[in-house]
Amino acid sequence: MSRAKRPNTPSPNETATKSPRSGPIGGDISAIVEGFGTRFRIPVLVSRHSQTSVMGLFALVNGVLSIALMSMAAVATGQAFIFPSLGPTAFLLFYTPTLPAACPRNTIFGHAIGVAAGYLALVIFGLTEAAPALATEVTWPRVGAAAVSLGLTSGFMVWLKVPHPPAGATTLIVSLGILKTPAQLTVLMIAVVLMVVQGMVINRLAGIDYPTWAPKLS
Fold first, then answer.
1. Domain residue spans in the chain?
2. Nearest Cα residue to 200 out of 110, 57, 104, 111
3. Taking the model in full, what pTM does it have?
4. 67 CB contacts (<8 Å, ≥6 apart)?
5. Helix 29-39 and helix 52-77: axis angle, to 10°?
6. How many CB atoms lie within 10 A of CB 29?
7. In the chain, is it the N or the C terminus that has fewer CB atoms within a 10 Å radius of its CB?
8. How far apart are CA 200 and CA 56, in angstroms?
9. Residue pLDDT tens, the chain, 218 long
């Protein structure tokens, strides 16, 4: 008499490592779409929240709106409220908001480390008054500044336990001379804080347990 097959049930370790909110393409975007649909009573978002086409459309609209707000601030003030590394930060905040890298502490401290490391590299290599590398040419001092800034940013994010990958782009923006004056760097950090506020509002509206500061302890 043959023995009955046991059902394939996940082990406790497998159950613990799989996020209950993960959609078909990972991240929390499926839960965010469903949360918005529930809060604003949009049945199509509730019923189709896990469809890739719906999630992609939501990501498209959310990305346009979030960066458009920062761009309008840049136009209105004439300041650098928009810069390349803000894009990947926005994606983290709205795609994987529950990851430690997306929490307010890591986002703000990560970019601050990138800014400080980039400016320190400019000082070390005598490039604070030099034209941006992309407008002229890449010189050996610029190579040194870029390398040192990225190394310092990577090291300090690990030492201080505040990893935020987009900060690696921020430090290169500074060390390459694209944004380098104290006024520009101050505006850059204000833009980061405003993006965090946007992320907090959108995720909380969707019912996502986005942290107020540090990552949630599991």
1. 83-200
2. 104
3. 0.87
4. 82, 86, 87, 90
5. 80
6. 28
7. N
8. 20
9. 445 444 454 444 443 334 445 567 778 999 999 998 999 999 988 999 989 999 999 999 988 988 999 999 999 999 989 999 999 999 999 999 999 999 999 999 999 999 999 999 999 999 999 999 988 889 999 999 999 999 999 999 999 999 999 999 999 999 999 999 999 999 999 999 999 999 999 999 999 999 999 998 76
User: CA angle, 95 as apex, 89 and 96 as ends, to 5°?
Assistant: 85
SS3 content of the chain, % helix, strand, coil (to 5): 65, 0, 35
| 8 Å CB contact between 62 and 92 | no
